[in-house]
Fold:
Amino acid sequence: MTKKCFGHDVLRGGNILLEFRSLIQLADDLVEPAAGLPHLAAGFIDLQVNGFAGVDYNSPDTPHAEIGRSLRAQFATGTTRLLPTVITGSAPGMLGSLRNLYAAKRALAEGVAIEGFHVEGPHISPEEGPRGAHPRQHVRPPDVDEYRRWQEATDGLVKLVTIAPEWPEAPAYIEALVRDGVTVAIGHTAAQGSDIQAAVSAGATLSTHLGNGAHGVMPRHPNYLWEQLAEDRLNADFIVDGIHIGAAFLKVALRAKGIERSILVTDASSPAGATPGRYMLGDQAVDLTEDDRVVLAGHTRLAGSALKMHRGVENLMRIAGLTLAEALTMATRNPARVGRIAGRQRGLAAGDRADFVVFDFDAPAKSVTIRETWIGGECFFRG
Ligand SMILES: [Zn+2]
Structure:
């Protein structure tokens, strides 16, 4: 049955009528001026989520019902599609986590939102700083055979892999993944400029959480932040929680990349959307502090975020001075393009999946209140 929805399409800048089943059938300008309509945007896409609502995606044993609960909690933030993210761990641990997440996707109604998987590591820098919170003992060089096992365990749903390009094996590894249609990102790296250039020439198209997973102190120039900022073939994603990167770096990075090459991610870990206390990220304990930081237990080192997508959209306006349309572009169209999300390339337009959010926007306060989240033409959240 065809459904209908009216609202103000922020990217189009006008009121529209949407008609949809699982796909959008019609997105037409409303001729009659209509007052008091809610805002509409394509559903948010989060390319990096380690867990949410107290649920850890980095464990082979996380119950499927818990994964379902974590997905419903994300629907309340406007997220419609995500890449659950498995970080550096033992080979059997990472494979088990991917296998469990894939089984959950197949078993759960909410699993429709799991677009695929992001593997962040284990082929990253072993150095303090670039390695971030990834466990040192499991860092290892790129291995195409291990990648093939991830794909076998998920029916080919590993869509994004983050590696450090300074490994000698990196260019050949990147070429193999890109041939499969996988997006390869640079991250947790201490690379020289020549390594970054080689990775981009091999097909890497993204910088993972640029500005984080880096040394506390580095040469003023050259360094791997400038090299990635200056490389126009690289898109970049950012954790815009007001904690991971300061306002000055965020503004400069957005200007260097341009909005079209910039993506909002949460990098949420299990405490996101939960109450302060101790949680698990893989086999490491992490604490959610009263001021919304996720840190390795007993340390100050950040271990993912407690960010929610709609708060990230607000933060882009408040911290970086973006317009609502620019912030939404970073949460919808850009991750769809760079993450190669099928059926999500056009936004609120006929032929695309009926993934959208209905929300209220308070312009002076720059606040977003999610009213409804629709995925594939079904309502998964109503506030
Ligand atoms: Zn990371």
Summary: The mean pLDDT is 97. Residues 120, 132, 187-188, 209, 213 surround zinc ion (CB under 6 Å). The domain at 43-342 is CATH 3.20.20.140 (TIM Barrel).
